Amino acid sequence: MPGGVNSPVRSFNAVGGTPVFISRAQGSRVWDVDGNAYIDYMASWGPLILGHADPEVVDAVRKAVARGTSYGAPCEAEVELATIVTEAFPSVDVVRMTSSGTEATMSAVRLARACTDRDLIVKFEGCYHGHADYLLVKAGSGATTFGQPSSPGVPKVFADCTLLAKYNDLGSVEKLFDELGEKIACVILEPVAGNMGVVAPTDGFLRGLRDITRSSGALLVFDEVITGFRLSPGGAQELYGVAPDITCLGKIIGGGLPVGAYGASREIMSMVAPAGPMYQAGTLSGNPLAMAAGIATLRKLHNPGSYEKLEDLASQLVDGLRDIIKSAGVSATVNRVGSMFTLFFTDRSVVDYDAALNSDTNLFSRFFGRLLENGIMFPPSQFESVFVSLSHTESEISSTLDVMKKALE
Ligand code: KE4
User: Fold this and answer.
1) Which atom of ligand 1 lies closest to the CA of 101?
2) Is 128 tagged catalytic?
3) CB 3.0 to 4.6 Å from 166: which of 66, 77, 172, 205, for a disulfide?
4) pTM
5) How far is the CA of 324 from the centre of ligand 1 (A)?
6) Nearest CA-CA partner of 252 in 300, 318, 285, 220
7) pLDDT (mean) for 296-325
8) Cα 280 to Cα 236: distance, rounded to the nearest angstrom
9) Quick check: is 406 catalytic?
């Protein structure tokens, strides 16, 4: 396997050392193949908000697998998960299941282009939306507004349709719309960024994007692959009270099995084949096994008190970490929204990608290594989110803080 992994960020290249191979997981714990146990804060990059191998999820998947893994034909479970999603997201009347977040965002961009008959899209530096060619684009050098490929194999012409703006900088978006507004199909963003580390939208940013897109006829796409069902039952759009035109989901809605989704109003989704002409398909989209895992996860997540418990655990951990940073006299800052947070080693407030890049990633790597040595598994990259789950306990939070204190000192 390239780099020994099936997804680059697992390789530990960003933090050094050899990637840990996991043999099993249960609740808040994972065990590596050498038998070492860790308190897990990666949560498989977001999906495992209940913790690993949740008994109800395991039972649902066990029952489903005995009835077959994939029919290649519609089944009730797809309707059930679609219903949960449309009830949770008022801006979504109709939803299409895919097998990954990449497929969800790729399809959402195609849908925006199909609806507006426009080709250009706007994304933000530091936001990641999966690996579709025209989303693997970084800011052009200097003042150029058009992006340039961020990976070999992405043709320049694909990057030419992608414009780059700065997160939390409405002016950078207005500038693009002043120049090219009538050609822009959509603005796509993580409403709370997780992929530059956690960066929250500043006051008025999301509302501003809503106004700019509405007045120019472009669609607003929220990539809620991380934030959907993470920050609240209705994701970031519920938390911040700004409804996009198209919503992308993934991770939690699959409960650890491969699921992505994109959804919008009935009118917009009537463009999607076979209801409409915009083509998109997938052999395993909506398969009964992944649907079962997603349904069981979301049903349990909707139990009263779930989000309050997530908020309580996460605030205990982050408030404690901020106290330790202060008493240790370390130059660091923590960005938190709900049960997702990131520690940056910098004395600046991190409100965009430039500020995140300015943090000391070498210090982060050493911090990551200290935690790992002491049985705490953080995501192996500065530019990711740490996740608290419903299976973490207060005693685990306090032992995590003890390890962090020693590491920072
Ligand atoms: P997938 O294709 O990896 O299922 O989803 C792509 C995606 C889309 N949108 C957002 C906001 C995402 O965070 C992701 C995937 N996230 C990465 C890291 N945060 C997954 C980890 C990995 O790439 O291995």
Assistant:
1) 5
2) yes
3) 172
4) 0.98
5) 31
6) 300
7) 98
8) 26
9) no
